[in-house]
Structure formats: C-alpha cells, structure tokens
Specification:
The structure is a homodimer of 247-residue chains. By secondary structure, chain A is of the alpha/beta class. Chain A is 30% helix and 25% strand. Chain A is built from eight helices and 13 strands. In chain A, helix 4 crosses helix 5 and helix 7 runs parallel beside helix 8. At the A-B interface, helix 1, helix 5, helix 6, strand 6 and strand 7 of A face helix 1, helix 5, helix 6, strand 6 and strand 7 of B.
C-alpha cells in the first residue's frame, strides 16, 4: 500500500520550509506539482521521479498523483500552505471517493502561507482581523467575490488578495479598487509583494487610490490595510490596539 | 549595534518550524517570549539568556527586548506566525518610535500560522475565501468583533476564530454561535483543534449547533465551514469549486 502526502513548501525559499515538509519530500519516491514550484525545491528532489504539470491542470495532476499513490510514496506540493487555494482539498476529495480498502495512507502538511510571508516582508499588516479572498473567477462566481470584498470592507477587515491579476484578468482588480474606495479612505495603505522569498522578490507600498498603477501579476499578493493601518519608513503596520502612545 | 528579530515558531513542534526561524534563534544571544512558547523550543535555546514573561505582559516583554537589542542579538518569539496576533507589530511600533540612529537592525520572520496548522489537522477546510477573527475583547470593542462575525457570515466566508474562549471569557463564543445560526445551517461543520502539533493535540469535528458543548480553551482554534463545507470520515473539506462529480 502506498502513501500520498500533500505539503506546502512555503513561499519559495528552502530556508522558509519546515523540517516536516522537507522530510516528506526526501522520503517520497515521486514528486508531483506545478513546474514553477518543482524548480524551487530541485535541491531536495535529486533523482526522484517528477510529474510536473502546467498551471490550471490541477485535476489531471491530482488524478495522476492519487493513481500512483496506490503503490508508491507520492508527495504533492503546493507553494505556501497546501490548504489555502492549494492541492490539499482536491487530493482529499479524490482519496475519499475511492473504496476504503483501496485507499493509500494520506497526510496533509501545512507550510508558511503566502499571505504570512508577504506580511512579514511588508512589516506587520495582519496584526488585526483579516479576510483572505482570491480574485480568480475561474471557479467562483464574480458576484460572490465582490460580495465578499464589500462585506470585508464594511466590517473593516484587513484584506489579503490572492490571484489579484493575470494576463487575461486585468479588470477585476480595478473593480475591487473602485468598490473599496466606497468604504475606505483613498490613502489607506496597500502593500504588494511579488515573488515573496524568491530571487526576484519585490515589495511596493502604495495607497488604495494608486496601487493599481503598480506592477501586479499572478505571483503577487496584495494586502489592503484597515482603517487603522499606517505606513512608517517603508513598514506597513496595523496596530493591534495596545495603548502605547507610540505614534 | 544590536539586532532584534521577531519570529514565528510555528504551531509548537520543532518539526514544523522553518530553517530560517531556527537559525535566527540559534544565532541570537537573548530569547524573549511567553513562558509556554519558550518551553516548546527549549532544545534550540540551550544556555542562552531567556526573558520569559507571563501572558498579557506583551508590552513589558517587548520593551525589555527592544531595550536589550541596542547592544545584543535578541530574538522575540511568537507561536504560529509572528504577524498574526503575535509580537511583530508591537516590536516594529516600538523600534520606529526610537530616533533613527539609535535603532537596532530589525527582521520579521514568518512561521506556519495556527490557522493553517489547525486546517491541515482537520483536512482542508480553508480551501476557499476565509476570515480570521479574534474573539478576545481585551483590545477590541466587542461590537466591532460581532460586526465582523456577521459580515463574514453573510458573505459565506469560512471563519477561523482565534482566542475563542478563556477562563474569564466564556459567553463570547455563545453569542457568536447564536449570531452565526441566523445565517448558516445548524449542521454546518465546525472543527476545533486544541494544542495543534503539540503533545496534547486534540481534534474535534462538530456542528454549528453543537460545537459549544465541546472542550474549547485558549489554545483552541475553531474553524466554521462555509455553506459548501462537508465532513466525510472525519475530514472537514471546503471544496474549491472544481467540477469533479466526486461526492
């Protein structure tokens, strides 16, 4: 009987991976994941069998992984945490669909999530309640996404946006911005981190009024401050509420 | 000139800590943190100087750390990620208050956040948009917390609750439950993970109607499913939206 492990590899640098994730990869026979992420952990993979697939082939990728895990030790990797827009859900859904006696052993390992990695690069923007929203409307109705944006804005959540923009999807972020400006000051700090912890990492701190003029792509994570968030010397900080008399 | 590093140590097991966090602790001269978390990383600390403080002494703890970092290498630890209800914000606020030429070097290192660790133990409950809310009303007005709960419920976010309950604070969670029941089915899955990745880790999967009868304490993280979340064989799963025909 084989085993399937789904693991987050963290934001992209081996230094930001957990011991448990590393061990799972090293002990596996087959590594499955999106090409770009496979590259990030090449040093760990060595001569293992690799099943790399292109973006948007999640179902195919998972099916292969599940099939092979009947007999082999397979690890499926996601960047960041495997449980946040990653592969953990899909793998579990497929495994639970199998007759119980045919199922491989299954394990889910978490990792440093992209939102946390981006936050640490910006300073401390997530110190108060926050909402995590993906702007990809491939699998989610756009009206539901916009409803979530509005609700989060009204209740003064810090808002973290995954998949803010892609080549084909450039209007969504503008609609989000327009909507947020109804509820939040135009000078609200907005942080953009692209390629967090990777060689080409960039960090931009802008405002709600101007952030859409900056470079944003599918490797960017956008964090929009709440009404208390401020910027000081290139750090973006959301106060937790301690009475410090510090500002 | 000294250095101050704020780092998340992950959920509590050295296996779930990143290489970068470990290195920061090993290279420091002084380790500052809440006693319970210091204990979790004792193996790394060895004969370093330890400043352990009790819960709720965050300001005092940070002030000591900042003061000592003028000359020494100090690391301030938080469980999970230091940027989510952790010490990153407070340290940065204090450092930025100092005259620029007196400031130590400062670094923020992220870790596996408690919400991600809890999710991996439950299965994959965070696969869709989610809101993170602390129920502690020490620093936040209770009306704002309840407004956030209601907004998140209305927009069908998965909801993760930090600080759900303490000895002195046992009514808040009941009010949250009552409110959520206005918007969500009473059979909505609710996962409770206590002491994630620690020796005494427990996992309970219950429902919105019944979860407040379970053991919940200050080391618990509660995850309330959205309208699509389901439970199968003790796994809690929120589908991402792939058309799998799998259930």
């Amino acid at each position: 009987m084989g085993k399937i492990t789904v693991t987050g590899i963290g934001p992209g640098n081996l230094q930001e991976m957990t011991e448990r994730a590393k061990k799972a990869i090293e002990e596996s026979e087959i590594v499955v994941g999106y090409h770009t992420y496979i590259k990030l952990i090449e040093a760990l993979i060595k001569d293992k069998k690799i099943i790399g697939t292109a973006m948007k082939q999640e179902i195919e990728r998972c099916q292969k992984a599940v099939e092979m895990s009947r007999e082999k030790k397979v690890v499926v990797i996601s960047s960041g945490d495997s449980g946040v827009y990653g592969m953990a859900g899909l793998v579990l859904e497929m495994i639970l669909k199998m007759p119980e006696k045919e199922r491989p052993e299954v394990e889910v390992i978490s990792g440093v999530s992209a939102v946390n990695a981006a936050a640490s690069i910006l300073g401390a923007p997530l110190m108060h309640d926050f909402a995590v929203i993906s702007l990809s409307d491939l699998l989610t109705d756009w009206n539901l996404i916009m409803k979530r944006i509005e609700s989060a804005a009204q209740a003064d959540f810090v808002i973290a946006l995954y998949n803010p923009k892609s080549h084909k999807r450039i209007e969504n972020i503008l609609e989000v911005q327009k909507n947020l400006l109804k509820y939040r000051d135009k000078n609200t700090p907005v942080g953009i981190v692209t390629g967090a912890s990777r060689e080409n990492e960039t960090k931009i701190i802008s405002t709600l009024e101007n952030f859409t003029n900056e470079e944003i792509n599918m490797f960017s994570l956008v964090i929009i401050g709440n009404s208390q968030t401020y910027v000081k010397e290139n750090f973006m900080i959301t106060p937790r509420g301690y009475n410090l008399n510090l500002r």
